[in-house]
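Quick start: what a row looks like.
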Amino acid sequence: MTSILQVENVTKYYQNRAILSNLSFSVPKGGCCGLVGQSGCGKSTLCRLIAGLERPTSGTIKVLDQFVNGIRQDGAVQMIFQNSFEAVNLYDTVFAIISEPMRCLFHRKPLQCKETVAHLLSLVGLPSDYMRRYPKQLSGGQLQRVAIARALAAKPKLLLLDEPLTGLDLSVQAQLLNLFTELKEQYQLTYLFVSHDPSAVSYLSDFVVTIP
């Protein structure tokens, strides 16, 4: 089976301290890898390395058979952060947030994005009139749905879910887990799912990698 993500002997040092040490695993196309470990073990660091936001001290990472040497310009890798309020511009409307990948990656004009934004909002369970709202007018769960819609707008192949359920009510967490499952099947997405919740990892993941 084709691997979307390949991590080989990845080590990352910060100030002479190893955060990750000789980590290797791969994730097949359409699969979900649960990534678990104690706080501070390097789970979020690994997500940043895969996204190209940082570089490993040693080892290699491939996404779609291409070495990761920086942020991909094709939108194939997208990341959902644990704090969506810090991941968006609070002064942008929902429309501006979701349409940004379409405008930057595919050079679409704002008017060309409206129908797609409405469709993406529908996919994540929000009414189309939410596109006129601002982040501070949304709950944490609603804004996380907006962040998911923004990621989908880039037409990704790999989604990095970095503690996407943190700080949300249990009912909202369950709704988002179901949403991730539906989107994975509908778009043949591949996930790397970081979580400290064993039940969430068990529900969504096909297999689990533990960082010591």
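That is the whole record. The chain has a mean pLDDT of 95. The longest strand covers residues 3-14.
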